[in-house]
Amino acid sequence: MTVTEAPPAEAVEAAAAPSPSAPPAGLAAVVGSGDPRTVGKLFVGTSLLFLLASGVIGALVGFEQADSAGEQIFGADTAVRMYTLHSTAGLFLGVMPLLLGLATAVVPLQVGAPTLAFPRASAAAYWTWLVSGGIALATYAFDGGPFGTDVDAVGLYVAALIAVIVALAVATSSVVTTVLTLRAPGMSLRRAPLFSWSMLVAGTVWLLVLPVVAAGLLLAYVDLRYGDGFLGGPAGLYNRIAWLFWQPTLYVVAVPALGIIADVVPVFARRRHQRHRAAMVMLGLAAALGFGAWAQLGASVDGGTPAPWLQDGTWNIVSYLAVIPVVGLLLLWTATLGTGRVRLGTPLILAVFSGLLVFLGVAGGVATAIESLDLDGTTWMTAQALLVLLGAVVAGLAGIAFWAPKLYGKLLPDSLVRLGATLVTLGALAAAIPLAISGTMGQQRLVAGNFGGVDSGDVSTVETLNLVSAIGLSVAVLGALVVGLAMLTRRRGDGPGDDPWDGHTLEWTTSSPPPLGNFASLPEITSEAPLYDSRYAPATATEGSA
Amino acid sequence: MATASAELEIFSEAPPPPPARPRVLLIGSALLSGSAAMLLFTLIALYAQIRADVLAGGDPWLPGEANLQLPPGSMGMVTLAMSLVTAAWIVQALRAGDRTHALLAFAVTLLFGAAYINITVYGWQQLGLGIADSTQALLIYTITGLHVAMTGVGMLFLVVMAFRALGGQLTGRAAEGVLAAVLYWYVTVGAFAVVWYAITITK
After folding, report:
1. With CB atoms 3.0 to 4.6 Å apart as the test, which of A65, A270, B62, B132 could cross-link to A226 if both were Cys?
2. pLDDT, tens digit, for every residue of A488-534?
3. Which residues of B touch A (CB under 8 A)?
4. Which residues of A332-371 are buried (b: 16+ CB within 10 A; e: fewer)?
5. Is ipTM beyond 0.90?
6. pTM, whole model, 2 decimals?
7. Which positions in chain B touch A222 (Cβ < 8 Å)?
8. Which of A8, A170, A227 has its CB closest to that of B138?
9. Domain count of chain B?
10. Which residues constitute the domain of residue B185?
């Protein structure tokens, strides 16, 4: 594999002197590239495509649930399988790689590193993820996936999903190692930008959680191939995955999203992030509380009751505690915006949307933990997962709009991005709120093997709510398409310049897009916002406070 | 004098050296070693849970035809424990710049790894159960098989790092690579201690 990353000194020399051999161009430059920006953009682009596919399938399943007695799109059994495709593709091929792709491209720039710690490993991880993800999706065409009937196809699905998880773990370890070891001189961990910090804490937890999923899948695979189905066979397979969509593990997926918001808000407030260290603690706490592998035994989706210890103790406490870091961060951002001179840029608007969705999702988790409300196992939890994950997607879109000059060498058109993100946000709310209401009426989650099942309440009302939810998800997909269109175009006018937002962190000191090796020279780093210091307050910079 | 002055001028115009990469390979290996350990520990946790459920039902854990002997597992544990010493010997020899002892330590560590795999395969042959015979057999084969795979990866890691270190300088990034491989090896041995206790000792 040809690798095109280079340390800064070599990059400067390469720019000055003609290269004896021409660098690869076209497809070869993409396939053979170990450049973090190229790999990151590949992750971002393909994860958005997978998210679109996941959204379309989710909407179709929703329409199916809107009229369970009438015309069928899939049929009940296939609809349940399609729902598992929608959820697993949304997480493993959509939200996680979207955030990871952004981190792969942006984190080296933020910490002042010439490249990633393991650029070749990240490139290999991307291609492994892409091929394995494609195989996992393709197995559904051959009756594979959870609840599938062809054991060979189900086995292939499990093996492909394990490969996806391994690839995500390798790419994550590359980002985490970059933050730990390749920070620029003067940048202590306390001075790390909040997105990089969020990837460090969340990535560490991902590295502990992903193997737990992989272990469950590995055992399921061996059981499928050689065993007697003691884990439940294809029907029990989703039990090995579903706990990722359940609190508290669900929240750790969204921690990098909080990191993106935390980097966007102070730039558009034109103000140092209020209590930077407190924000770091909050992000760390959110990631620590999101380590939910211990709670997977309670995440039974096949109609079984959760383990009693789960409802009685620790799980409830963690569900309540998980709100604290999110609320704390919201307060810090409100304070930052309140004391700043706010410029209503597109990334800020998207960040606000994202914060709102994630907060609603996490707050919904408190209600789930209240046993007397009896929401466990209902579509209330589906709504909660939708809010958190779509909140993370909107944060990812905010990150794309914010870092577009560094990723693509251009600014995205404001109107299209705002329209698309507004549609995604409104669609997310319209998809989640009806499901939350139908959850309070007793509608079981789809994968509980109870298609369209309602324990109590008015069935026609529930089906109407399902219809509204499906329309909402369709609107979100439409919004994502609009943002995708925006990514293919550019804002009118001159180029973006090196620092179009008056940014605070190191990525804005280099050109847009950055050269190979990222930086020719780095400024002195004396705080978490070195560019803010040089621009606004060099004499009075007080690290960690206003 | 003029030549020396010209050389100094060249040095003064030379670009700064690339920044040091402080223990990148070591930190990355530590992170992935932790992930590998989590993979194995999850399987052991599932094993313990299923075993507890069976025992709570009043049934014996292992089927009557199972012949899970102590010696293979225990010898495997002793073998890997000895490899901890030889792995430390590798690091010590590299620090001392002693190429001969480093080579010897690499060879003995790899030999211990191969011996462990051999004794585990022997244990499988003696077990008296096929992987498809029962849930217990499936779990035992999956867990021990995964650990054998982890050991194989560790041996490969050691071989690659040995070539890098012994083929070049014994210090710097090459030595860091060896340290990373040794760290992974220690995690692998530590993980086997848990496997050994959970499967061989408690039966």
Report:
1. B132
2. 887 777 778 889 999 999 999 999 899 988 888 888 888 899 998 88
3. 15-19, 21-24, 27-28, 31-32, 34-36, 38-40, 42-43, 46, 49-50, 131-132, 135, 138-139, 141-142, 146
4. bbebbbeebeeeebbbbbbbbbbbbbbbbbbebbbebbee
5. no
6. 0.90
7. 131, 138, 141-142
8. A227
9. 1
10. 23-57+70-201
